[in-house]
Amino acid sequence: MFPVALGLGAATCIGVANICAGYASRRVSPLLVGFWSQATGATLCAVLLLISRPPLVAGQLVWGLLAGFAGGLGMALFYRAMAAGAISLVAPITACAVVVPVMYAIAAGETPTLLVSIGIVAIIAGVLVASMQPARIEGDLARAGVADERRVLLLAVAAAVIFGVFFILIDLAPRADGWGTLWTAGAVRLSGFSVQIALLARARKRLTGPGRLAPAIITVGALDLISLILISIGATTNAYGVVTALVGLYPVITALLGVLVLGERLTRMQASGATLAMAGVMLVSV
Asked: Which end of the chain has fewer CB atoms within 10 angstroms, the N or the C?
């Protein structure tokens, strides 16, 4: 039951964080959302490190910093996609990131199972189906009239690829027991925060406070960190496969919240493509 609780807890945290991030990104610049959410996560992680003072394993910081760089870029693209399109469409497409480490493993000599192979085909087919019929997204949070959905899908696919690289890099980090995983998480957050600072500077965008959106943005940073900790703890159990499979449910939570809470509406083609991609993610994650 413990691995199940870890997986479902992490999936819920990620799903709710995505909705909060998408909500905020449609009201202020996605760059500001990324900056303040990463700042929140980095601060909380630093506090936990000061309290727990776990031992540092050689290599944790290096791989954590590299992974955080990829994660920061992926997050920027992900937030831009959610700001312009339906979150219930973007989340399942971005969740296809799980296929990247699988392809990496295949290239390294591993032989995929039948379910994984079917999952990869389903993911590719789902993305293609979802991109075949651009149409108006009738969300009450939409900034513009007709969203440029092909651009949104390209952003979501690009975010998925970069998030996939993040998963590969984080897997290369040395294992640590208990709270020792915080060193890797801290390095990830520090590097990701640096990416957000660089993107803000490049865009020459003035840094402003989160204002009335502070609760949503702080929630994003806190839930992202909690999910990372839960997954890291799951990696120390004997049922990590169960944990990762259940974490793969997060796009289901995000999509449902997008429809039920934000009132988003997708075309049948988009919904079918998102569902097919989501099913592929589940197969690959098993």
From this structure: N
Domain-by-domain residue ranges, the chain? 2-285
Residue 191, CA distances (Å) to 11, 38, 97, 101 in order? 23, 9, 20, 21
- pLDDT (tens digit, 9 = 90+) per residue, 133-147? 544 444 444 444 444
The packing angle between helices 30-52 and 2-25, to 10°, is 140
Cα 128 to chain center, whole Å?
21
Q: In this structure, are residues 245 and 98 in contact, taking their beta carbons and an 8 Å threshold?
A: no
d(CA 18, CA 88) in angstroms, rounded, equals: 10
Residues 251, 11: Cα–Cα separation, whole Å: 8
pTM: 0.79
Q: For 236, how many CA atoms within 13 A lie in the half-sphere containing its CB?
A: 12
Instruction: Give per-residue pLDDT as tens, 53-111.
Output: 999 988 889 998 999 999 899 988 988 888 887 787 787 888 788 788 878 888 888 78
Determine the Cα–Cα distance for residues 238 and 249; give it in Å rounded to an integer. 20
Which DSSP string do the residues of 117-161 spell out, in sequence order?
A: HHHHHHHHHHHHHHTS-------TT-SSSS--HHHHHHHHHHHHH
What is d(CA 59, CA 50) in angstroms, rounded to the nearest whole number? 20
Q: Tokens for 240? A: 């990590």
Compute the chain's Rg from CA coordinates: 18
Cα-flanking dihedrals φ and ψ of residue 285, to 5°?
-80, -15
CB 242 within 8 A of CB 3: yes
Q: Give yes or no for a contact between 149 and 135, defined as CB atoms under 8 angstroms apart.
A: yes
- Select from 8, 263, 47, 275 the least CA-distant residue to 142: 263
